[in-house]
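hiii, so i know i said id send this last week but things got crazy w the move. better late than never?? heres the sequnce for the chain we talked about at the cafe, plus the structure i predicted for it. fair warning i was half asleep when i ran it
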Amino acid sequence: MTVAFEDAVTGVLDALGPGELMTYGEVAAEAGFPGAARAVGSLLARSDGGHPWWRVVTATGRLVPGHDQEHARRLRAEGIEIRAGRVSLSQR
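okay and structure toks below
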């Protein structure tokens, strides 16, 4: 990953407010790197929680495996409904 990629993605992530959701692919595209959804996930995985990772879900609304309970807790606290480990992207 380049510094330009990390800076662009960080800008998109840090602009997300409470109750706002994006998919990994949407973050990548908005940052100017369409098709780099996995790289967004990788950046979030190594960020030590410095970004609002809980506001990002897969294209199907799935929560982060292994962190799904914390993910759901944080989203619910922001008014997002969770059902069967997923959010409905139509809530946005």
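btw The chain is about 40% helix and 10% strand. thought thatd interest u
miss u guys!!
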